[in-house]
Amino acid sequence: MKSILITVEGPIGIGKTSLARELNRAYDLQLLEEIVYENPFLGKFYEDISEWSFQLEMFFLCNRYKQLQDIHSKYLQQGISVVSDYNIFKNTIFSKRTLDPDNLNKYLKIYDILTEDLPQAHLVIYLTASIDTVMKRIAMRDRDIERNMDITYMENLIADYEEFMQEFEKQHPNTPVIKLNCDHVDFVHNQGDLQQVLDKVDPIIRKLLAE
User: Fold this and answer.
1) CA contacts within 13 A on the Cβ side of 181
2) Residue 159, Cα to own-chain centre: how many angstroms?
């Protein structure tokens, strides 16, 4: 079997890491989790987005770039499949929301250079939900750094994801995208909901692994 890269994407607090861990267990995949809370600019960013956005985005980009380099050489090139709780394309979603035009232009040039030769996902699992659901789940996990989350920022982010994913599917017709609406599905706390999700993604994952 060939090695594949599965990425799980969606807004903050939607359950990306939880689902990636479940897929890791179900299919014996190598798990890649993004470095988030080690970012020294994250707390400052939530307090003042315009002031700290460039530093925050550059930190994330460099760390994700290094992670994907390592995953490519240590696992994918060795025939080991990987599931990640992020796709590096998320950098463009966040940066276009947070950076001013001058910094955005510089940032996207760096992004294009760094990501040119990185491995691309064979499957994207896209999690989405309403703002009410997302904010409730952020509150439930009760992380200090997220307690000052701006609801307007989150509303815009959810809309940004939806717009990006629609365009992504048009531009990458050969990359399967599984969209899961999480408003009435809580696979983190409900085993039955988790099984429904696994049943939905299973045929595609097994097909990709067998190709």
Assistant:
1) 5
2) 15
Q: What angle do CA 117, 122, 123 make, to 5 degrees?
A: 130
Is pLDDT above 70 for 200?
yes
CATH assignment of 5-210? 3.40.50.300
The pLDDT-based confidence of 37 (bands split at 50, 70, 90) is: low
Q: What residue numbers does the annotated binding site cover?
A: 10-18, 137-141
Q: Which residues are catalytic?
A: 85
40 within 8 A of 63, measured Cβ to Cβ: no
Look up the pTM and report it.
0.91
Burial of 44 (0-12, 13-18, 19+ CB in 10 A): middle
pLDDT single digits (tens) 115-171: 999 999 999 999 999 999 999 998 888 777 677 778 898 999 999 999 999 999 999
Binding residues for ATP: 10-18, 137-141
How many Å apart are CA 194 and CA 187, to the nearest integer?
4
Dihedral pair phi/psi, residue 177, rounded to 5°: -125, 120
Using the predicted structure, report yes or no on whether residue 31 has a pLDDT greater than 90.
yes
* pLDDT at site 87: 96
Domain boundaries, the chain: 5-210
Distance CA 171, CA 159 (A): 19
Query: Which DSSP category does 146 fall into?
Result: G
Note the pLDDT of residue 115. 95
What's the CA gap between 136 and 142, in Å, rounded?
10
